[in-house]
């Protein structure tokens, strides 16, 4: 059983409200969940304290036992400071010359090796 940390949609039509949940990857989006880890309300203002609420200790536990966050949840966890950013890879240049693969820091843009 693979566990995913993902968003489950609640609310009415045109008034979405999401719960951050740990769920089996084979269950439906709004189906059976293992644990509720927080919530996200996209209709709140960007600076509003009620926009996102996360249970940091439980999220860290699920990440430590191998739960995989979805892309949207991964962005939320990065903004909250729970996970490091993904490394980016530079493959080539515009003038057609092939270059070796370099890892680039997404925050500073420096080449890492």
From TrEMBL:
Keywords: Chloroplast, Plastid, Ribonucleoprotein, Ribosomal protein, Transit peptide. The keyword Membrane does not apply. Signal peptide: none annotated. Gene3D superfamilies: 3.30.1320.10. Its main location: plastid. GO terms for cellular component: chloroplast; mitochondrion; small ribosomal subunit. This is 30S ribosomal protein S16-1, chloroplastic. It comes from Raphanus sativus. The gene is LOC108839802.
């Amino acid at each position: 059983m693979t566990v995913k940390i993902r968003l489950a949609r609640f609310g009415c039509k045109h008034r979405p409200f999401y719960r951050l949940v740990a769920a089996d990857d084979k269950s439906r989006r709004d189906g059976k969940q293992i644990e509720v880890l927080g919530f996200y309300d996209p209709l709140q203002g960007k600076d509003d304290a009620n926009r996102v609420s996360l249970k940091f200790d439980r999220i860290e536990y699920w990440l430590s036992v191998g739960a995989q966050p979805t892309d949207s949840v991964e962005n939320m966890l990065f903004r909250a400071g729970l996970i490091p950013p993904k490394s980016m890879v530079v493959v080539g240049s515009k003038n057609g010359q092939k270059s070796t693969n370099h890892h680039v820091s997404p925050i500073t843009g420096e080449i890492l090796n």
